[in-house]
From TrEMBL:
The protein, known as: Thymidylate kinase
Pathway the protein contributes to: Pyrimidine metabolism; dTTP biosynthesis
CDD domains tied to this protein: TMPK
Organism: Hapsidospora chrysogenum (strain ATCC 11550 / CBS 779.69 / DSM 880 / IAM 14645 / JCM 23072 / IMI 49137) (Acremonium chrysogenum)
InterPro entries: P-loop_NTPase (IPR027417), Thymidylate_kin-like_dom (IPR039430), Thymidylate_kin_CS (IPR018095), Thymidylate_kinase (IPR018094)
Keyword entries, A-Z: ATP-binding, Kinase, Nucleotide biosynthesis, Nucleotide-binding, Transferase
HAMAP family per the UniProt record, alphabetical: Thymidylate_kinase
Stored Pfam families: Thymidylate_kin (PF02223)
EC number(s) given by UniProt: 2.7.4.9
GO BP terms, alphabetized: dTDP biosynthetic process; dTTP biosynthetic process; dUDP biosynthetic process
GO CC annotation terms, alphabetical: cytosol; nucleus
Lineage, opening ranks: Eukaryota, Fungi, Dikarya, Ascomycota, Pezizomycotina
The keyword Kinase appears for this protein: yes
GO molecular function: ATP binding; dTMP kinase activity; nucleoside diphosphate kinase activity
Domain Thymidylate kinase-like: 21-208
């Protein structure tokens, strides 16, 4: 019998699991991604940590300039650049998963569609934003680290980039909570891959909640019950 403190099983699997952590800016994603990665390392399972946007590529550098308010771009243009940045990594993601390597990612396509839709541009809906993502490798689970903008703003570094504004962050949280199926969050269609986890409290406490959310899904991948990697539809 396993508990929330147990590491993932060390048995070999047909493919790696693909787990994504999402959240507001300064919600602790990077820390929790590293802690989740460490669980797999300690269990002797191959694991790769990724982060989106990947600012090391040419497209990523363009995104970095936008996020730091060095350049202005149309909402549709920057959205498509974010999407292109993920497509740059798609082949590598598939290769890693096929080799049995688990991927733990700091953001992925859900951030792309939610942050774009949260701008309130009437011609950039969630459905429009999702279209360029169709065909990308689809995560086995997406964990949204739920923290209020007021709590996030108390953490170091808040406000340094273009999306770190209270109203924007409130809308992002609302959309993610809607995707996670929480009631009272507006007319957002439930996404079965998204689970909402309370990001308040101590780092280790949050890490246990994250593992409690993903443990069962990882076990299904390990036992071969989830089959091949799916794609975004």
């Amino acid at each position: 019998m396993t508990s929330s403190h147990d590491p993932p099983p060390a048995a070999s699997s047909k493919r790696g699991a693909f787990i994504v952590l999402e959240g507001l800016d300064r919600s602790g994603k990077t820390t929790q991604v590293k802690l989740l990665e460490q669980r797999f390392v300690e269990a002797g399972r191959p694991v790769k940590m990724m982060r989106f946007p990947d600012r090391s590529t040419t497209i990523g550098q363009m995104i970095d300039g936008y996020l730091k308010s060095n350049v202005e771009m149309d909402d549709h243009v920057i959205h498509l650049l974010f999407s292109a940045n993920r497509w740059e990594a798609a082949k590598h993601i598939n290769e890693l998963l096929a080799s049995g390597t688990t991927i733990v990612s700091d953001r992925y396509f859900h951030s792309g569609i939610v942050y774009s839709a949260a701008k309130g541009n009437p011609s950039l809906s969630l459905s429009w934003a999702r279209a360029p993502e169709r065909g990308l490798p689809r995560p086995d689970m997406v964990v949204f680290l739920d923290l209020t903008p007021e709590e996030a703003s108390k953490r170091g570094g808040w406000g340094g980039e273009v999306y770190e504004r209270a109203e924007m962050q409130r809308r992002v949280r609302e959309l993610f909570r809607g995707l996670g199926g929480l009631e009272g969050e507006g007319a957002v269609e439930r996404d079965e891959d998204v689970v909402v986890v309370d990001a308040g409290g101590g780092v280790e406490e949050v890490a246990d909640r994250v593992w409690g959310a993903v443990e069962g899904r990882v076990g299904e991948v390990v036992r071969g019950k989830r089959g091949n990697v799916r794609v975004v539809e």
